[in-house]
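To illustrate the input format used throughout this study, we show a single complete record. The first block contains the structure-token representation of the backbone; no residue identities are included at this stage. The design step must infer an amino acid for every position from geometry alone.
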């Protein structure tokens, strides 16, 4: 296996905007895209059962809201160790009950091999960037610990989800290796930036009718849904073959969510980073 297809999408909890119809449209779109890794936010138990019925291993996040809304990671492949963290990094995170992170070791056929897949969902409110910084640090620490412990079987780390922060936010600058947080430094390649360095690629935007109709009517537009690949000393170990927004257009007349998803195809490079190739 040389290519890995991953998707993250906030699918808007089903109590809004005729959720049953939207979920049927989502099922059609997922079947067409057929990703190996699916990270969905604002899901309920029925959504998890639907993913399991498609032959995926379903790994829910550690928390749900009182009405049963949460996030889920669903993968194809052989699943090994799984860890999670509720990301309760401060008193204000109690106001966002289903924030959290889940990380799973997944083994695929060669040459891809072992991949640590991390579904990250921090606190969402405006003004909570301090919490998002702390949550990013906690999630990155979890990923680093699992990667170090699994060096004999893990080759790559992918982090994806609704980060509720644009690329220039401190939490995303930390993930992208542009700044440290409390003595920790990591570096992940932003798949969208790698594929579209000069295009904003907004994922939560008033171009979407469900954003205009929703509870943030003055939203100017942001790219807050991200797919990231861990870098070693010589850069990322996977090549971004393609990265596109997912479900911009309605499916059979149905706008699936107020977020656009991010669909990425990663590819194992012909040559390992850190090795010289032919030159003339």
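Output of the design step:
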């Amino acid at each position: 296996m040389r290519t890995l297809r991953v998707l993250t999408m906030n699918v808007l909890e089903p109590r809004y905007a005729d959720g049953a119809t939207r979920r049927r449209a989502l099922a059609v779109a997922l079947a067409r895209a057929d990703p190996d890794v699916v990270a969905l936010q604002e899901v309920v138990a029925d959504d998890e059962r639907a993913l399991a019925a498609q032959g995926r291993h379903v790994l829910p996040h550690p928390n749900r809201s009182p009405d049963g809304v949460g996030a889920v990671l669903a993968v194809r492949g052989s699943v090994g160790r799984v860890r999670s963290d509720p990301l309760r990094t401060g008193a204000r995170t109690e106001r966002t009950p289903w924030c959290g992170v889940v990380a799973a070791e997944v083994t695929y056929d060669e040459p891809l091999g072992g991949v640590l897949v991390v579904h990250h969902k921090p606190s969402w409110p405006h003004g909570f960037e301090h919490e998002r910084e702390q949550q990013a640090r906690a999630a990155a620490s979890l990923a680093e610990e699992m990667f170090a412990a699994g060096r004999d079987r893990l080759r790559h780390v992918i982090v994806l989800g609704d980060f509720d922060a644009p690329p220039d936010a401190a939490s995303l600058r930390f993930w992208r290796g542009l700044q440290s947080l409390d003595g920790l430094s990591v570096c992940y390649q932003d798949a969208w930036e790698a594929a579209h360095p000069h295009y904003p690629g907004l994922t939560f935007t008033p171009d979407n009718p469900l954003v205009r109709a929703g509870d943030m009517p003055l939203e100017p537009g942001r790219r807050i849904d991200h797919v990231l690949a861990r870098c070693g000393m010589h850069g990322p170990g996977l090549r971004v073959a393609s990265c596109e927004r997912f479900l911009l257009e309605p499916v059979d007349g149905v706008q699936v969510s107020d977020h656009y998803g991010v669909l990425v195809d990663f590819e194992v490079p012909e040559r390992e980073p850190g090795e010289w190739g032919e030159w003339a």
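Structural context for interpreting the output: Residues 129-149 form the longest helix (21 residues). Residues 3-267 form a domain with the Deoxyribonuclease I; Chain A fold (CATH 3.60.10.10).
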